[in-house]
Amino acid sequence: MGENGGMLALVRLRRGVVGESRRVCHLIPVPAPGAVPEYLTALCGESIFPGEAEVLDGLRGMPCHACLMADAPVGGGFLANAG
Predict the structure, then answer these.
(1) What predicted TM-score, i.e. pTM, was given to this entire model?
(2) What is the DSSP letter of 18?
(3) Spatial CB neighbours of 10, under 8 Å, sequence gap ≥ 6
(4) Is 67 exposed, middle or buried (0-12, 13-18, 19+ CB in 10 A)?
(5) Cβ neighbours of 11 (radius 10 Å)
(6) Taking a C-beta distance cutoff of 8 angstroms, is the pair 3, 71 a contact?
(7) Count of Cβ atoms closer than 10 Å to residue 31 Cβ
(8) Residues 33-69 pLDDT 10s
């Protein structure tokens, strides 16, 4: 879930829109029911326009690290004792 408690979609730019190395999986807040925005904005700030991306039905591919960091839990010590 996004920081405002809304749902997030996992999307990836389609082949041919960008090179393979940029086809990462972005986290995008799902618009409110009935809202039809001109474009969607990933948590990392990337704008995704209609027809440029595919919605993924599960976890696959390389994640966008900036999107993951934007949705990471806030608070000291979350990874302090990792590894």
Answers:
(1) 0.75
(2) B
(3) 25, 26, 27, 28, 55, 56, 58, 59
(4) buried
(5) 22
(6) yes
(7) 13
(8) 888 889 999 999 999 998 899 999 988 888 999 998 8
